[in-house]
Design goal:
Strand content: 25-35%
Number of strands: 20
Shape: globular
Strand order of the largest sheet: 2-7-12-8
InterPro entries: Ice-binding_C (IPR013424)
Radius of gyration: 22 Å
Helix content: 10-25%
Keywords: Signal
Oligomer: single chain
Order of helices and strands: EEHEEEEEEEHEEEHEEHHEEHEEEHEH
Organism: Rubripirellula reticaptiva
Distance between the termini: 17 Å
Pfam family, one: PEP-CTERM
Protein name: Ice-binding protein C-terminal domain-containing protein
């Protein structure tokens, strides 16, 4: 079996769009036609993607505040400062940057724009959170003290932190210039992301047809993964968690020290130590790290390590859930195994991992 590398593409993206009946991760297909149900392959692919998102939604209690004020104002004396927020995301089919000027959003919703596009080399898929921006303005009688107070009041009125989840990014700087130079700092929580899968399975630079994709991807999440195929469901789990801030948020970065050590209390309590728990690339749990599946308690490599074998499937584990809690998400998972037993199992798994890397050459090894 070939060992598939999973790599985070920390592309930034954000946008908004009207309420949705379901809380949690919501998939947006507006930039793709692949998941249109026009063939059996596409029906299965969409079902696998939505099953992965449903499993994540079943684990995370999304307690995200609504964003109702796309434009915020703050007043001090006769000066009014205005902040007009905007988001951006990567079109999952073309990779073009899309700006979304209206940033209002329902409570508890995190929207991911999904698609398929050719990816070079050994990349299976990419996912990440979104970008943020803002325009600033002021009116009224302008003086230095009032300008700063008005900007501070406007920033405090922002709803973009949303409560739970990681800090994805912080927008900070100064506006208006001397002598009215005014500083601002605004935190942004989980809002939207983007996710795409490779549809160039022969690496010739173009999108391949359904038959070629079906020979490379295992789309049916209800059946065991065919030998030599790459499990679409597993990659969808992995990349959706990247979009939610695993490996690509300010909170994640703040919990990584010395390049590979994790300081989050939940993961440490789960596995017994945070030393060397992060992959050298900084965006994954260390390759070969073991945990227990939430579905049946069986041992499995974590979803968020950088590897998966062809012909196999991963599902969410207790350690994946612990990392989510360290990122300030609330999860349904409370019972964890004894740290000593899990740490021992992880070390044993890391030892056998070297054998698993002695493999025949396969084109696709990363996502």
């Amino acid at each position: 079996m070939a060992h598939l590398r999973l790599a985070a593409a920390l592309t930034l993206a954000l946008s908004i769009f009207g309420s949705h009946a379901d809380a949690g991760v919501v998939l947006d297909y507006s930039d793709t036609t692949f998941f249109d149900g026009s063939s059996t392959v596409r029906v299965k692919a969409k079902a696998a993607l939505e099953a992965a998102v449903a499993d994540i939604n079943a684990v995370i209690d999304f307690n995200l505040g609504a964003i109702t004020n796309d434009v915020v104002t703050g007043t001090s004396g006769s000066t009014t400062a205005t902040i007009d927020f905007r988001y951006g995301y990567r079109n999952p089919t073309t990779n073009a940057t899309v700006e979304v000027p209206n940033t209002t959003m329902p409570a508890n919703e995190f929207r991911i724009f999904v698609g398929m596009r050719p990816l070079s080399g050994s990349t299976l898929g990419q996912g990440g959170p979104g970008s943020v921006g803002a325009g600033f303005g002021a009116s009224g009688f302008f003086n230095p003290g009032e300008a700063q107070a008005a900007v501070t009041a406007a920033a405090a009125a922002s709803e973009h932190r949303r409560g739970d989840g990681p800090v994805m990014a912080t927008l900070s700087g100064t506006v208006f210039g001397s002598p009215n130079d005014s500083a601002y700092s605004i935190e942004f929580g989980p809002t939207i992301g983007n996710l795409w899968f490779d549809d160039d399975v022969d690496n010739l630079g173009g999108s391949d047809g359904d038959a070629a994709l079906d020979s490379f991807w295992h789309f049916d999440h209800t059946t065991a993964v065919d030998a030599g195929k790459n499990d679409f469901y597993s990659v969808a789990l992995h990349e959706t968690l990247h979009a939610l801030g695993v490996g690509g948020s300010e909170t994640w970065d703040s919990l990584v020290t010395n390049g590979t050590d994790w300081t989050g209390a939940e993961a440490i309590a789960e596995i017994g130590s945070g030393i060397g728990l992060i992959d050298a690339g900084g965006a994954h749990i260390t390759d070969g790290t073991m945990s227990f599946r939430l579905s049946d308690g069986m041992a499995q490599e974590v979803v968020m390590d950088p590897s998966i074998f062809t012909g196999t499937r991963k599902s969410l584990t207790t350690l994946d859930a612990a990392f989510l809690r360290d990122l300030n998400y609330t999860t349904q998972i409370t019972a964890v195994p004894e740290p000593s037993s899990l740490l021992a199992m992880t070390l044993a798994g890391a030892g056998t991992g070297l054998l698993r890397r002695r493999k025949p050459s396969h084109r696709k090894t990363r996502c």
